[in-house]
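Problem statement: downstream parser choked on a complex file, so we are re-checking the raw output for the flavin-adenine dinucleotide run. The parser issue turned out to be on our end (a line-ending mismatch), but while we're here, posting the original submission so the record is complete.
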Amino acid sequence: MLRCGGDRVVIVGGGIAGALLAKTLESHADVVLIDPKEYFEIPWANLRAKMEPAAVERTVIPHTEYLHHAKVVTASAVSVDDSVVLTSGGGGAVAYDFLVIATGRMCNRPQRRDDRLRMFEHDKARIASSNSILIVGGGPIGVELAAEIVMANPEKHVTIVHGGPRLLMVMGEKASSKALEWLKSKHVVVLLDQTVDVTAAAGENVNVFTTSAGETVNADCHFVCTGRPVASGWLKDSFLGEHVDGEGRLMVDEHLRVGRLRNVFAVGDITDVPEAKQGYLAQRHAMVVSRNLKLLVKDGGGKTAEQKLHRYKASKAAITVTLGRRDALSELPFMTVIGHIPGVVKPRDLFISRTRRMMGLKLSTRHDQSMLQREQH
Ligand SMILES: Cc1cc2nc3c(=O)[nH]c(=O)nc-3n(C[C@H](O)[C@H](O)[C@H](O)COP(=O)(O)OP(=O)(O)OC[C@H]3O[C@@H](n4cnc5c(N)ncnc54)[C@H](O)[C@@H]3O)c2cc1C
């Protein structure tokens, strides 16, 4: 068992929120990060990675590259009690003084970085060798992937099959119709209110799919971009199970504490904070919890720190969907815009330089530096 001595912070999940939290806390506490992968990945770069794997290698970063003091346990958490996290494989039991749950959404990624990069190369080869591509799911991920493909390869036939009545249901109706219009202008076929069971038709060589409405889609390859459930299954039978809501999210208070437990926090997509589930908001959660944990650790968990704890306020944040390298669709609180203007903000560098800088990583290439300068202007 990995024992603790009063200031041990165990962070479960090394994604956008957990990795940043570990980075900002590692000089202030005894931090242990538990993650089944050996690396941190910037998720919003992984659609472009399917087109240009080499350009986004810097978005898959070994935990040991940005963490210098924290201990990394490469394993999945399988259960937890009021003082110990149990992990699978060789990770064993990890004792904690403070616990942060940051397991986001369920996602099967290889343990090793090399294997993850090979997945991008494999996807690139599949796309390159296909004339027709089926995308299942018309949420932000499906729409962004379709756009990446058709902007780089206008000759490819892309079809989106989407179960809902409109694309981008996490955004308003205006955004949905603008996205539909944009995709149609790029000759993407969009089939709404239909589903397709790709597992029933599984196999590398299957290239005819039938939708629930009986339509036939010819596709040399397909990508499933439907929503992924929250990764809270491992908590349900634990002492935190009573704080998991009907959608699998952890119920948190204004300090992002779970069930008002003094030493248990949650950050990122796993929380029930009533706002869009976005990476930059997950980063804000991490910063609030980081400040709170610094206070609690410094004060030995005493009452003074309790009174000073920072609050998190749910955000009415903007959502931006990238449409290839130049265009984007942004839903702001007061308007919805599409085209080159919102495209100036996100699509070129996908905030990769900024995210690397937040993780204390060098902007090692000239490309990184010029992109950062452009973002700042
Ligand atoms: C393709 C794509 C594009 C996106 N585009 C944007 C965008 O443009 N802007 C934006 O703001 N947001 C975007 N998002 C959303 C954003 O990525 C998420 O909101 C963000 O990743 C949530 O961060 P998180 O740390 O809560 O979870 P995640 O980043 O999902 O990380 C969860 C971590 O927990 C680990 N984990 C899971 N289960 C366990 C377990 N049992 N034990 C230990 N570890 C575990 C996982 O391995 C992972 O490392 C996008 C998401 C995707 C997938």
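For whoever reads this later: The first strand starts at residue 8 and ends at 12.
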